[in-house]
Structure formats: structure tokens, C-alpha cells
Design brief:
Length: 292
């Protein structure tokens, strides 16, 4: 006897879909409908207004908060540019030296000597918007500054998700069964979509939000922590929550390694552009084939 059962695909390969690219700030779009584009093509240019970044120098330099001020390499109120030395601790006779560089162009705005946290005011900066995918321009909205691109993607579905659509370059942190705590979340993961392992701890989630990580893909998560980011409710796959970061859980509650099928696919997209839609319970991996 034949039986019909519901089956949810974990991986849907090579699907043709529309990808939206949004230009932030004040600027203009540079493409037109029907144009063929490559990932490196610049489709818009803008000027992004200033914001703020917080940097825990006490943690990064591994010193007491009261020692941070003497380790600063730039006076308060002064401009510092991305990559310049911000904080430095000498290693002495037996220790190892520590240094912190600025993650962006900015002004040293405020130092909390009780916590060792520095507030950095980001300077306005020019921003080029790359296409990030191979495809054809389907539509251009000059008012909302949105470009829709018809392209080919591989979709990966989890069983739990949270957060609006976010994009970024994928970064695999370790093996599929690793436990991810806050010590594995660093400033170089800003704007990235990171792949954890078998469990993401609550302190790592909070640190990721603080440092501006765009999204996390994990095999497992604690039930209480997922409720905290999903508005206190558990909705499988599709939800409407938003706490400042996208989360995709591929396996379930507790410590569960990411499935071998999904993990190997994600590893092949390490350092490539992806789109995480937490509330839809999926991540889209744009094709790297120019013929797509």
C-alpha cells in the first residue's frame, strides 16, 4: 500500500529566484533592467551616515578595566582610521603582548573606566554596493533604492529560525559538533553570517549582537535561549521575530551537530556571499557558476 507523507527538503539545489539588494544611505543606483551582472559589479554608491561601535578593550587586551586608559594609543576625541592601532599591552618578560586595531574610521567618543568599554563614533563613509551574485537585473526601484536580481541559488532549510532577512559573507568557525561560547565571537565577524557547531550558548548570541554579527547557523540551541530571541514562542521554520540578529537552527534543541549534508555544503561556501532569512527558516547560497 502506498502512503503519502509530508516531507520537508533540507537542501533544494539550483533554484531560480529573485535576490534583493538594498542601497543604504544617500546615493544612487547604477544599473538598469535587463542588465547582466557579475558578483563584483558595483550596482550602487552611497554615503552612509555616522553611527557608534562599542569595543571591550579590557577583554580584548586581557587587562583590568582600570588599566585600559593607559593602553590607549590615541587620545579621546581624536580621529582614528580602520586598521590603525587602538590599544596595546606590552607582554613584559614572560607574557605575550596584546594589540587591538580600530574596526572602522571613527572618533574616540567615550571610555567607561569601570567596564573598560570604549564607544567609537563612526565617521560618515562612502559605500559601494556590489551585486554579490551572477544574474540579470529584474527591476530597479530608485525611490526605495532596491535592485532585484534574477539568479540561481541553493536553499538550505532548518527547523527553527528567527530574524528578518540579512546578508553577509559566510564564515565557518569550526567543526559541526563544536560548542560556541562568547570567546569564539570576535570583531572580525562583524557583518558576517557565521556557522557554529552543535550548540550556540546564550552568551555567544548576546556577544554576536553586540559586535554586529549578521547571523548564526547552528545545529542546536537551548530551548530557553531560542524563546528569548523569538518573542517567547516556538514556531517551527516560519516566524516573525526580530532581535537584531538572524538565527537558523538546522537540527533542534540541545547539543546536536549540524547534519553532515548541510555542513559540507556550507563549508564549500566559506567566505562566499549568502542570504539568511531566519523568519523563513532558510539560508540561500547564490551560485558561483558564471553560467548560472
Amino acid at each position: 500500500m502506498n502512503m503519502l507523507v509530508n516531507r520537508k527538503f533540507r537542501i533544494v539545489p539550483e533554484r531560480v529566484t529573485l535576490v534583493s539588494r538594498v542601497l543604504q544611505g544617500s546615493g544612487e543606483l547604477l544599473v538598469k533592467k535587463g542588465q547582466e551582472i557579475n558578483p563584483s559589479d558595483i550596482i550602487g554608491r552611497a554615503v552612509v551616515s555616522a553611527g557608534f561601535r562599542t569595543i571591550n578593550l579590557a577583554k580584548d587586551l586581557q587587562i583590568n578595566p582600570g588599566e585600559v586608559k593607559k593602553c590607549l594609543q590615541r587620545p579621546m576625541g581624536k580621529v582614528i582610521f580602520k586598521g590603525e592601532l587602538l590599544g596595546f599591552k606590552s607582554g613584559g618578560l614572560f607574557g605575550s603582548q596584546k594589540l587591538v586595531t580600530s574596526p572602522t574610521d571613527g572618533i574616540l567618543e567615550q571610555l567607561d573606566e569601570a567596564t573598560g568599554i570604549l564607544k567609537l563614533k563612526i565617521l560618515p563613509h562612502k559605500l559601494d554596493l556590489p551585486a554579490a551574485v551572477f544574474g540579470i537585473i529584474e527591476s530597479v526601484d530608485h525611490v526605495k533604492k532596491i535592485v532585484s536580481i534574477k539568479t540561481q541559488v541553493t536553499e538550505v532549510y532548518g527547523i527553527l529560525g528567527s530574524g528578518r532577512s540579512r546578508e553577509g559573507y559566510l564564515k565557518v568557525l569550526g567543526e559541526r559538533g563544536d560548542l560556541i561560547d562568547k570567546n569564539k565571537i570576535s570583531y572580525d565577524l562583524h557583518d558576517k553570517i557565521i556557522v557554529g557547531g552543535g550548540l550556540i550558548y546564550g552568551n555567544a548570541l548576546k556577544e554576536a549582537v553586540t559586535l554586529g554579527v549578521n547571523g548564526i547557523i547552528t545545529g542546536g540551541i537551548n530551548c530557553s535561549e531560542f524563546k528569548g530571541i523569538s518573542g517567547g514562542k516556538i514556531k517551527y521554520a516560519r516566524s516573525e521575530s526580530e532581535v537584531g540578529i538572524g538565527v537558523l537552527v538546522t537540527e533542534g534543541f540541545g547539543s546536536i551537530p549540524i547534519g553532515q549534508d548541510i555542513f559540507e555544503l556550507l563549508k564549500s561556501f566559506d567566505n562566499k556571499f549568502v542570504i539568511l532569512e531566519g523568519n523563513e527558516g532558510k539560508v540561500s547560497l547564490p551560485s558561483t557558476n558564471p553560467g548560472s
